[in-house]
């Protein structure tokens, strides 16, 4: 039996391109890995009537960690459809969505950025409870003390292990003192147990401005689900864009790693997707398994190829997914 088993889920669109690329990179590490393939996404839903079959959940639970490509969610209501990644986050209680943004040697990346956005991954507006009364539509935002406390604890422990030891609690308690106030106050109370971490609160709109003006001043950020969703695309944009930004959906028992980007229907099937975000998510997966040296080796190889080329189109180059992946593999070996 291999040392680690890894579940691979391609999903939709460019998921079919970036997961095989990341698999080749993982195979090139020489680690003793066994891969198990599973299905999820909109294409699977159209064929089988469900977006995440139970067999996929079982494979995610039975393997050591999962690498997910991307999945499509249509912007209209489709009867019986559940967004694949959103369903998996809640079903597997993957409560922490960890989204690092680090400077890369690519055009448009700020220098000296090294931050991690921790997004609460199970509630907020993502409980997806919407209803319509005539011309009025209402969505619930659920915030619980339990989920706020555990995401706060996760972010504080993460900040404690880092050099700067700073935690920005992102909120909108000035307008929503009951829901956002519960999130903010619960985390600020928890922070009293971490006196070595400098915890401070920032209102989300101001946080967006500060992130663009002075991203190097941030260390760890924690936010409710939708604010974290929006700000993590912003932080991806600070350091080279969606082609580069990785993430991990982490629970107490299971973990699913995935790029921040989606299925990119505008470029899917053309062989031009940048696999970096998925490869860096694979590096996070290796860290999760305790393979820290190999994780650093992957990250260093990514930055070396980003610096020297070839680069993919989203970063101003002309390389396709294959050519970029080949260069990465040469660099690892
Ligand atoms: N975690 C997920 O599975 C996830 C995340 C985001 C969006 N989505 C879904 O994906 C679909 C498309 O959403 P979208 O277009 O708003 O976002 P997207 O992230 O798929 O694409 C946004 C833009 O970034 C580009 N891009 C993204 N990844 C790239 C890569 N690896 N290399 C090069 N360019 C890349 C795309 O070509 C596009 O122009 C939607 O159905 C959405 O619901 C899923
Ligand atoms: O396409 C979906 O079903 C979800 C997209 C997803 C989200 O959390 O909203 C994506 O934007 C992300 O940041 O992971």
UniProtKB/TrEMBL annotation:
It is an enzyme of class 1 (oxidoreductase). The keyword Metal-binding applies. InterPro entries: IsoCit/isopropylmalate_DH_CS, IsoPropMal-DH-like_dom. Keywords: Amino-acid biosynthesis, Lysine biosynthesis, Magnesium, Metal-binding, NAD, Oxidoreductase. One of its GO terms (biological process) is lysine biosynthetic process. Residues 5-328 form the Isopropylmalate dehydrogenase-like domain. It holds the Pfam family Iso_dh. PROSITE patterns: IDH_IMDH (PS00470). Its EC number is 1.1.1.286. It comes from the Bacteria. It catalyses: D-threo-isocitrate + NAD(+) = 2-oxoglutarate + CO2 + NADH; (2R,3S)-homoisocitrate + NAD(+) = 2-oxoadipate + CO2 + NADH. Pathway: Amino-acid biosynthesis; L-lysine biosynthesis via AAA pathway; L-alpha-aminoadipate from 2-oxoglutarate: step 4/5. Homotetramer. Dimer of dimers. The homotetramer can transiently dissociate into homodimers. This is Isocitrate/homoisocitrate dehydrogenase.
